[in-house]
Design brief:
The structure is a homodimer. Chain A is an all-beta fold. Chain A is 2% helix and 44% strand.
Chain lengths: 165, 165
């Protein structure tokens, strides 16, 4: 069992795993609607079309796990990206590992703040939704369609990770 | 000039114009993530592929108009749907008219509450983003691609609508 303290979520740190969805001066943005709106443009590579899939929009309502949070299980979606954008004013955890064969030593734990969404690229290992503090809603953009699109991996006890909050 | 008081936004009232994106018991939902998350499933018909388009995810940061709010201009997107999901805890206005030739008498004005998103179906006339109360962020799912995808209509002065808040 390892212990990991979450690191801050930044676009640069998250780039190997997917896209940070955030209204930041670091992304391309420009005024629209006669100056009444600033558009932070094209923040995520949505990829849902494999094997006849289509883009679906859903809301996930997630209850925080009973603490301490232990990473015992990871998953990935071979056929699609999956985006999570928080609709509640609460932070949440983002636990990822690089695509390919699962490498327990390469797991990263990020703390996402309210206002920060993520888009996992196809194949990126991630934990399921980990709300913090209160029941939280997330807008989820993922693939809806036939075919097997979720692979799970149970971590060996020695590889499991306790998140230090 | 007409005056319209916004009506509440419900899925039934909005159906002629698009989808209501809301975690409601009225939509299909089911537990996932070993019971820690409830998935409110497949809430919007995303349609962005016309003429080589793809699904884009952006954030709109909208400043409320100086009051009173007058509907002078409507628009529609012939090639795609466009979804708005509020990321801020503020209500906003949704002003729509049926697709086809613009009919000023058929304009509807809805008040969306925090937690209620909308997805305009292709061709639905709508006003641009109308935040209320404070600068507000919206997650927007629309088409990114070449081609002319915005048609605007300026309302005649007699057809303009003052929104009574």
């Amino acid at each position: 069992m390892r212990h990991i303290k979450p690191e801050p979520l930044t676009a640069a740190a998250f780039r190997p795993f997917g896209d940070l969805i955030e209204a930041s001066d670091a992304v391309r943005h420009f005024p629209i609607n006669y100056g009444n709106t600033e558009r932070y443009h094209d923040l995520a590579a949505i990829d849902t079309g494999a094997e006849g899939g289509r883009t679906g929009v859903s809301i996930f309502r997630s209850t925080p796990l009973e603490g301490p949070i232990v990473v015992r299980l990871m998953e990935y979606h071979p056929l699609s990206s999956q985006a999570f954008v928080p609709l509640s004013p609460n932070p949440y955890l983002v636990v990822v590992a690089p695509k390919g064969g699962f490498d327990a030593g390469a797991v990263r734990v990020f703390r996402a703040e309210a206002g920060q969404g993520v888009n996992y690229h196809p194949g990126t290992w991630h934990h399921f939704s980990l709300a913090l503090g209160a029941v939280s809603d997330f807008l989820v953009i993922d693939r809806i369609g036939e075919g097997s699109n979720c692979v799970e991996h149970n971590l060996e006890p020695a590889d499991q990770i306790t998140v230090v909050l």
